[in-house]
Amino acid sequence: MFIALSTFTIANDTEASVKEAFRNRPHMVDSTPGFQKLQVLSPQDNPNEIWLMTYWDDEESFKTWYKSHQYQESHKGIPKDTKLVPGSTKVRYFSVVGE
């Protein structure tokens, strides 16, 4: 299993609409080969921070999705007025060691 974790922090007061956009996401990734699941998290101690964890069969499946037109299309639901804290966007990759 391969996990991609993307994090960012919202700088203006759009976190409620950003979270709503994730609740109503178009589910474009769901039928992508190798995709297992997506979790969108927000730490209770920093509700302006968003974590997206996508679970994949393997890294190649993720890379294929990330380079696809559908990936770009899937992000169009994020409110246009959303501003992020500079430098807060990070992407990290994980391999599952044990469960």
UniProtKB/TrEMBL annotation:
Q: Which InterPro entries match?
A: ABM_dom, Dimeric_a/b-barrel, Heme-degrading_MO
Q: What is this protein called?
A: Antibiotic biosynthesis monooxygenase
Q: Which Pfam families match?
A: ABM
> What UniProt keywords are attached to this protein's entry?
Monooxygenase, Oxidoreductase
Q: Which GO terms describe its molecular function?
A: monooxygenase activity
Q: Which superkingdom is the protein from?
A: Bacteria
KW Oxidoreductase (keyword) present: yes
Report the source organism.
Answer: Rufibacter immobilis
Locate the coiled-coil region(s) and give their ranges: none
